[in-house]
Amino acid sequence: MADEQYDVVVVGSGGGGLCAAYTAAREGLRTLLIESTSVFGGTTAYSGGGMWFPTNAVLRRAGDDDTLDDARTYFQAVVGDRTPKDLQESYLCTGSTLIDYLEIDDAFAFEVLPWPDYFGDAPKARAGGRHIIPAPLDAEALGDLRLILRPPLGTDRLGLPLPSQITGGQALIGRFLLAAQAAGVTLRANTEFRDYLVEDGAVVGVVVSVEGDTRTIRATRGVIIAAGGFEQSAEMRTRFGVPGVVESSMGAPANTGLPIRAGIDIGADVDLMGEAWWSPGLTHPDGRSAFSLCFTGGVFVDVAGRRFVNESAPYDRLGREVITAMDDGTVTLPFWMIYDDREGLVPPVKASTQPMVEPDAYVDAGLWHTADTLAELAQKIGVDADTLEATVKRFNMFADSGVDEDFGRGSEPYDRAFTGGKSPMAPITKSPFHAAAFGLSDLGTKGGLRTDPNARVLDADSRVISGLYAAGNSMAAVSGTVYPGGGNPIGASMVFGFLAAKDARSR
Asked: Do residues 248 and 281 make contact, with C-beta atoms less than 8 angstroms apart?
């Protein structure tokens, strides 16, 4: 006998989990959402909250003239055959439908944030992107729900005050919490997934732990797993060969992959298990290298003092270049950003998801160095002085001409997105010169349970495991080994959570 019974049990409370739970409840299903920690929102709550949904109504109202055929051409050009075409098609065609579905509810409001596609040279890439964000939300609108909303990273990690206005991923989760509560979803925190209930090969519920007590919960229509990836499990990262370390992941603290491991144990197939959503990370005094972007100057150098990458490339592409260089031994961690004094000691990093603390803390930790000459700076960071001087001289020549002959910095729209359309290459000429330590970060792993186009989990023979669904980073990513555009992870998470709930309703 089970301790409780619902139509649908959703595991995880990020964008995908909340979208699944809200949809299931709105479709008339008795729905329970469980979250292992004391707050709801998962990694989505740390994010910008962007969604990559081609041809959606929000874009259309703003004058967007994209077509689904163009979006398909772009997506398939960059993803290729790494994931099934029907899975790609399910994502591409459902995003706009999902926005129509959500906008019926007054809890939801969205706006356009132009954000270039991440492969600007691919066919049908759009310089303005296919990207929307949730509209900001006044904190007062959430009432007591604010207390159970996972706070932003600055609050969670550094103890900074909560902002008065809720934006980005915070706004997306806040709006879903309001809508889910109104739809009748039972939201239960501090409830840890332990295992699946399986009968005759079908998943019929979950085993959970609540304050150390084991409980069983039946789900007559299905269990939807949207509990993030396994980025916070050092054991699983090692087992599946995921580069980087737990401390430098931006994934929510409880994302240890237990539902994925339990899925493997009952015969579920997995894919992309060595993959993550990568980025360079500014290294902070607490030892974390946190996802960073919007570099308006500086160059990255390898162990020899040479540039090795387009520093303004989209963060996942840049992170993958770092991994390639690590694999061939030309980059070790930390690697260094070299920049001049035109903006002072603080590096030209305009967005670090973990806010910077006082500059002296970075200096005292040996993470930021300053010298009157490049040769002296090279000595401080352990690279060859002549090579570093030659590197900067060559880069300055490119900065003056506006053409990066080595790595094409500034050649794609994303490269220029944070410099007002101008070249992102700023000459390194004003002394003193500085170096800031960087590491490898990620936004979570992207390998997980393999699914069909309706988010139903498959076994190794591509047969559906009845009653089990997956979305978000618990699901093997529809985008395969690439990151097509800003908002792809959250967008796909929401789409497959939505499709899972719809399929569960039809069972």
From this structure: yes
| CA distance linking residue 389 with residue 400, whole number of Å | 17
Per DSSP, the three-state class of 294 is strand
Q: Which whole number is the average pLDDT over 30-46?
A: 98
Q: Which helix (H) or strand (E) holds 323?
A: helix 315-327
pLDDT at 296: 93
Radius of gyration of the chain (CA): 23
**Degrees to nearest 5, angle at CA 396 with 395 and 400:** 120
Looking at residue 474, the DSSP 8-state letter turns out to be G
DSSP 500: H
Distance separating alpha carbons of residues 392 and 306, to the nearest angstrom: 9
Q: Is the peptide bond before 432 cis (omega within 30 degrees of 0)?
A: yes
Cα(143)–Cα(133) distance, rounded to whole angstroms? 22
DSSP conformation letters of 398-463: HHHHT--TTT-TT-SGGGGTTTTTS-------SSSEEEEEEEEEEEEE--EE-B-TT-EEEBTTS-
So what's the pLDDT on residue 1? Answer: 79
Q: Are 378 and 305 in contact (CB under 8 A)?
A: yes
Contact 300, 309 (CB under 8 A): yes
Pair 74, 123: CB distance under 8 Å: yes
The C-alpha atoms of residue 79 and residue 481 are separated, in whole angstroms, by 7
Burial degree of 86 (CB within 10 A; 0-12, 13-18, 19+): exposed
Cα 234 to its chain centre, rounded Å, is 19
Residue with tokens 């997506």: 75
pLDDT at 83: 98
Q: Measured between alpha carbons, how far is 164 from 328 in angstroms, rounded to an integer?
A: 47
Task: Assess whether the previous peptide bond of 116 is cis (omega < 30° from 0).
Answer: no
| Tens-digit pLDDT profile for residues 278-313 | 999 999 999 999 999 999 999 999 999 999 999 999
Dihedrals phi, psi of 85, to nearest 5 degrees: -60, -35
Q: Rounded to the nearest 5 degrees, what angle is found at the Cα of 344, between the Cα atoms of 343 and 347? A: 75
Gap between the Cα atoms of 302 and 45, Å rounded: 34
Which two structure tokens, joined as six digits, stand for 286? Answer: 């607490």
> Stretch 337-352: mean pLDDT, rounded?
96
Q: What are the tokens at 496?
A: 């497959």
Q: Is the pLDDT of residue 164 over 90?
A: no
Residue type, 482: V
**Pairing mode, strands 299-301 and 335-339:** antiparallel
